[in-house]
Fold each of these.
Amino acid sequence: MLRSIFFLLPSWILLLVFFVGPILLTFYFSFTNLALTGTQAQSMEFVGFQNFAAMFEDPGFRVSVMKTIVFLFLSAIVGQQVLGFLLAILMKEKNQAFRRIIGIIVIAGWVTPEIVVAFCWVAFLSDSGTLNMLLNSLGLESITWLYSFPMISVCIANIWHGTAFSMMVFQASLDDVPKTVEEAAIIDGASKFQVLTRIILPMVKGSIVTNMILVTLQTLGVFTLIFTMTGGGPGTATQTLPIFMYNQAFVNYQLGYGTAISLVLLIIGIFASLFYIRSMKVQI
Amino acid sequence: MNRFKLEKVVPYFILTVIGLCFMLPLLWVMFASVDLNAKQALTIPKEFTLDNFTAILSDPANIRSFMIGLFLSCGQALLVIIVGVLAAYPLSRYSQKYKKPFMFTILFMTSLPITAVMVPVYQLFIFLKLQDSLVATMLFLTASGLPYGIWMLKNFMDAVPLELEESAWVDGASIWKGVKRVVAPLMIPGICTVGIFTFSMSWGNFFVPYILIQSPDKFPASVTIFQFFGTYGMVEYGKLAAFSIIYTMPAVILYIFAQKFMSQGFSLGGASKG
């Protein structure tokens, strides 16, 4: 017993101070008027639910919640999940070399650090960037992507960065589908589409659910990509909750209010994580 | 073309189109980095040059930011491995009452978004007078990477047969020596996987050092590249592209390395027979 405490102590100290501590502080600070500068920086007061009342009154908060939902839906659920599955299923039983090349290209986007991803896409989508050059060569007008379609732009960049993860998860689970079952269905006269919807999809259902929660959690925390591509703008066009939290805490110096917003993020994260653990059905 | 043939060709066609779409933004960075007159649009450089790279690498401020990045990421990876192996040992070897809730808590922590706690972490750092400290930033990063590290290392350790360790004890080794000489060496593939993953996550992390470090001379590469982006981004595309490629290289190299490890790594079962 004593020995195991000795082994566990370093990790417990680190996790308590830098992981559990900040989570508890999130709950505490959310109920204070903590500010970065001014008198409230020195004497912080307990203000009850004031931050939350202000938050639900704040149109900026409502906008951010909507933006977060759109960002999650387009880039995580539709984008990464569907594109990742499509890639995995199309690559199944294809020419080995071809599979490898496509795999490497997609994974390259995943290995690239977020800030470089942002830089690549800002350049690619810029007014005289590659995409507009291609459009022009097809005889189409240039589009100011980052101003006219900012949300689409950050979603595409996030899909480019994240799809490889879903692709690899689905590749692994598709490999687990026994070939004999598929072959038997085809002999019984099932079409390719029927094999997909009646046999493959039900068999990989578990990994679809787990992957969806995991990708949603990752996307919920995306800050760097949006912050460096659009800074949340133009206006509030791409101001998701993490950006809104950052602006309130560090631009407007309202740490208490910023923490209340992070508490909302944290609570969504906690529920999604609990779902994730349930879906994993782990044995410990 | 008959229906059967079409069915074979269509997937290849779709995959090629997706592949091209994925490749274009990367191609631009590669071409721009070797072109002195790089523009926003993809152009084949008229003259191949490494001047952009030498310009980035000859600036001592850039070198320092890479070194600081290495310090944060290597330090974090090393600490996660050491502290993680220590924590994994009792969790893997002893049966205890608190083991199950602890492992569930760990798994729960692996999926929480770190973004959500950054505001209170900043406040905590001010309170403890740790702001602008690279070591404290590294410790925070270590804590954020520990849940994943402990979880993976415990699973890798479960695969190391207990008999090997017991025979070491019979030969007079202490528990501590057993971990160091028998268990850890057999877990090398697992340790490398966790180390590489932790390093890559940390190396690419911009938000944490951006919030916790204030002095520009303490910025790691991820934050420096952002400053560069803001200051010269609209003018010096070639240099920024070169910076991006140098900065991306460690993550790419380690990923290739990790793949080799992961494919040959899990043959631990044979160890007990040998």
Amino acid sequence: MKERFNLILSGVGGQGLITLGRLIGRACILAGRNVTIAEVHGMSQRGGSVVVHVRIGEGESPIIPSGAAHHIIAMEILEAGRTARYANKDTVMVVNDLILPPPLVKYPSREVVVESLRSKIGKFYLYNAEEVSKEITGSPISSNIALLGFSLSVNPLFEELIKKADIERAIEDMFKGKSAELNKEILHRSYEAGRSRLGG
Amino acid sequence: MHPVLARKGETVLLMGNEAIARGALEAGICLAAAYPGTPSTEIVETLAEVAQYTKTYVEWSVNEKVAFETAYAAAISGVRSLTAMKHVGLNVAADILMSSAYAGVKAGFVIISADDPGHHSSQNEQDNRWYGFISHIPVIEPSSAREAYFYVKEAFKLSERYGHPVILRSTTRISHTRQPILLEEDIPIEKACKGSFERVIERWVLVPGHARKLKSKLMEIWRKIQMETSEPFVKIINPGMKTVVIASGIAYSHVSEVLNLTGLDDKITVVKVNMPVPLPRKPIEEVLSTAEKVLVVEELDPIVEDQVKRISLEIGSTSKIFGKEYVPLNDELSVQAVYDAICKFLGSCSPQRWESIGDIKTDPPIPPRPPVLCPGCPHRSSYYILKTSLNRAGFRNVIYTGDIGCYTLGYQKPFETQMTSFEMGGAIGIGHGLSKVVDELVIAIVGDSTFYHAGIPGVVNLVFNKGRAIPVVLDNSVTAMTGHQPHPGSGYTATGEATAKILPEDVLKAVGFETYVINPLRVKESVATLQKALEEFKKGKNIAIVSRARCALEVMRDARRSRVVLPVYRVDPEKCTACQACVNLAACPALVVDPNTRKPVIVEDLCAGCGLCASICPYKAIQVSNTPSSEWEKLW
Ligand code: SF4
Ligand code: SF4
């Protein structure tokens, strides 16, 4: 068994992580890949930390060991900091440029967390996914797809497993009519943004 | 179309719970009943969604015991059925579980116990495989979501072969993992949905004389299951080696990955166990006859390990058997934990395989993010109203007993209105007991769904035995925490049919409480009502409170669908004095404090328009910033 591709999705409950996991899962089926997607979240509906473990390739065990992630998508900056332990020196990390502090607590600033991650993770990208989502759909609701599009273009190992076209088809399967079109546009724009960030 | 309805030969992405639902449908069930509880909920939720197409009767019962009874009744009259619950739910249904093993079934009957190793959403992590021993009901344990689909069908076959109930034990990591599943069969169009009840009194009536005979028969079945079962419940991979790893359920998936990664797979015999209780005897004997050392890997308690040791003793094997020396007794297993265990067992490989960059250090550190009440959650307002009115009525050091639901989050600051939380309905019984022994006022807070589930006997007892606790029902007319399943106060059933609406205040009134119903969106008015109610309580009356407003998530969803514009609030920085009262008293996640000005800002995308912060602000700095639809309040 080759080692599976380990992808961590993290963020705050309600940000669309579960949907993102399902979308990647659907794309994996279309790409003919085996996958396990484990949702790790706490008790309530919203507001807690959520981590989704996506493992692409043969194997059944659902949880990614600390240090074994090939790629991390974080939908919020503090949660990105929290998932650092899944990263090793080769991990690619894509973080939504958004900070949502939990109520009534002290928290480090955006700059402090970002700097600390940047210094430890070789391939670290901050991306303003809300901006793209809001521009195209009028709401931040599709930030998850924007982060996926961006991730795919900045991580060749990831793109080797699923192609942008697989994700487009998965979007068509999971969303209807206009919403499918808008999401595909977000995917495309964010993918291009990743390309230009790579400088290619 | 729901993926669970896909045709044979298709590969669909299903979560473990959906896979169980699909497997059960293929097995031909015609009835399913459950009470929602994480991680089991999506099993019956899925069945309810497709009930119309699969012609299956599906219900959300008021608790697990009733759900079990409903499903069991079908099975004893020849209709295949399923009941599902979280591990602690099986405690509620334990009574009928025991009896069902005595009387057996006429058609396949599977009880799904979704356990929660790691306490992701539960008060404990009990290992429900023990229930198999107490009740003498076999326990099937799949190793993955994909296998859950396969083994639920095997469970039905086993159940029919022996006319006996079967427990399928899933765990959070199986229930909530999605995998592509290649569908092996179609859902049958024709199935037995009409039962017939045979009046065999000595079977269904467990008086001692009948039960004694049934127990002997039960022991016979139990022995047979032990002796006659092997594949697919136990599989021996790479037989004949001196070193053996036995792994049950999900532990097998971790073991298989570790052996692959370390290249040890051809040097070790692996025994994959999918029926940990009772452990099929013959394959284990076979392995023990040549093994030198054995490691048993399983999550939580040493259930397989103890049986292996016992079989080894009985056949006089000299193999050395290890288990919990190396494998943790608590928490979930993982590739990492199993990797460490196998390394120690073999005394070889080095324990650090994956090199993490470690946690990052920041100042201040990244704060934990426990789940919080959603923006706009009516419980937030209810708690604020309760505390304010109790304070005004002169009650100090109030004790709040609590229960299970979203509102349990009220244990957090600033509310601290949940000081106990043991089990469903516990708020009321504990509240009653405390009221007998303490001087402070006791407020027993229970959600609507929990009230129907196990709160009603408690309120009857409270009045009957003259307890002085005040029951408060936080009523959002739905089982919100598990994803909005209907209950007797919702007015509709699992499959969306309109039905009677049984209101908590009517039950409370019938039991003997003077009941006050408030709307938590109207803060001032509610405080006034409660002050009046508390005066009555001081005079010796039994009072109860129902605080009613819908779950904010449902309101926001309905607003989106019907294009009703809800109010959105904004802090006027001119008027705001940065006093922090709104933040400290409401603790709403939509209120974010600007680190420079210390003035709060409302995140517009999160605000649900409940208006609690506005009613708290002493400077009237928080106001509606848009033009809401005139009928917006009706949605709550
Ligand atoms: S899901 Fe509904 S009831 Fe639960 S915390 Fe959120 S708004 Fe409140
Ligand atoms: S309560 Fe009013 S004045 Fe005080 S911080 Fe909040 S908005 Fe500003």
